Amino acid sequence: QLQLVESGGGLVQPGGSLRLSCAASGFTLVGNSIGWFRQAPGKEREGVSCISLKTRWTNYADSVKGRFTISRDNAKNTVYLQMNSLKPEDTAVYYCASGCTVLSVASWGQGTQVTVSS
Question: Which of 6, 20, 40, 68 could pair with 92 as two cysteines, CB 3.0-4.6 Å apart?
Fold first, then answer.
């Protein structure tokens, strides 16, 4: 089955760091871009960051600029999201998907829970 699998979430204190991974299972990452999204309880799913699979282009939501870094390792068929200086408002389920906007995503994986709390 072809899917993107998220991992790396967990519980971290404010100011801490986590690195999320998005691995392609059963296929090689193709297409134009891979995005990271998140959904907090009671809120709509939102885009966090996006990376081109062909160029060096990246994009970040204003709320995470300067704190999060998206990257890809083509050899490992994986996209990463390094999250530093985490805040309680970063608490959410994080998803990766093909595309950069919520409306462009055809299917979602199970996501990985990130909880920022003292």
Answer: 40
